[in-house]
Amino acid sequence: MAAKDLVRKPIAATIRLTVPAGGARPAPPVGPALGQYRLNLMAFCKDFNARTQKYKPDAPMAVTITAYKDNTFEFVVKSPAVSWYLKNAAGIESGSSRPGHAVASTITLKHVYEIAKVKKEDPGNKHVPIESICKSIIGTA
């Protein structure tokens, strides 16, 4: 490995967006956010849409883009939020208006386990036991 491979590139910005799965287009909100750092919009859109093909269309994907000063970028895609999965599993539009008092809907432990399996693939949860992720999801519900 050459010494230049170990040198860090100077970072221009870190951009956080929520983009629907398979729905990245050079229009707002993606276009202006990446355009101000002169990043290649079409490269990002093609890459993002390819990486999010396995998810349900319109699932809100959290993406963190690291823009470098030489106009290159890297990005990390996280799966949709637990609350989105819970609402889909329960078949409701929004949660309870009075959490802890009124029950909006119920889901089974199988649903919780399935959500935990998807969340386990996230970069931050690779080494977290699935049991702990399940407990966190139950806490969110």
Automatic annotation (TrEMBL):
Domain of life, source organism: Eukaryota
Family in the record: Belongs to the universal ribosomal protein uL11 family.
Keywords (A to Z) from UniProt: Ribonucleoprotein, Ribosomal protein
Span of domain Large ribosomal subunit protein uL11 N-terminal: 15-73
Residue ranges annotated for the Large ribosomal subunit protein uL11 C-terminal domain, each copy included: 78-141
Entries under Pfam families matching the protein: Ribosomal_L11 (PF00298), Ribosomal_L11_N (PF03946)
UniProt name for this protein: Large ribosomal subunit protein uL11m
Keyword Oxidoreductase: no
Biological processes, Gene Ontology terms: translation
GO MF annotation terms: large ribosomal subunit rRNA binding; structural constituent of ribosome
One GO cellular component, as annotated: large ribosomal subunit
